[in-house]
Amino acid sequence: MEIGGKIRALRQKRGLSIEQLSQLTGLSTGAISQIERDLVGLSVESLYRIARALEVPIGYFFDEAGSGVVVRKNERRKIVLPKSNLVYEMLSPDMNRQIEFLLVRLAPGECSSQEQLSHSGEECGLVLKGRLIVRWGDQKFELEEGDSIYFASHIPHRYINPGKEESVSVWAMTPPSF
Question: From CA 107, how far away is CA 58, in angstroms rounded?
Fold first, then answer.
């Protein structure tokens, strides 16, 4: 089942109308209808809003990989949003931990949305390959291979790849957001 179908099924299970979900998320009813039918791309910020309104972690909308202690490279759960150049690979075995560990792959250019995301907690990232711009509030940090950054996640932020090659970084977030 695609993300939109999972959102619709959970909304209906909770007894919410599209209008009610619209009020809870701040997204238009038309946008929610299109998201539920997988007709439009879904930004991370919009998915966060929907997940919060439906009281589930973002990971709920993605297939679960193995559980336990070890996460094998070929068994990582991937979070890929439609029409986005951003891929999250879960390095943590499941969502029931105190910290979340992610590998983030970002194709060159802007994300599908220019919205900045905010959530509770803190995060720390290390650029493994390529370049990465982190917009954090009204500040802009340009990072290269080997550079790291640490910030409070409640301040709106987003990632941009200004380079010509894929940007790969590793992130730790607490509490888990996905």
Answer: 21
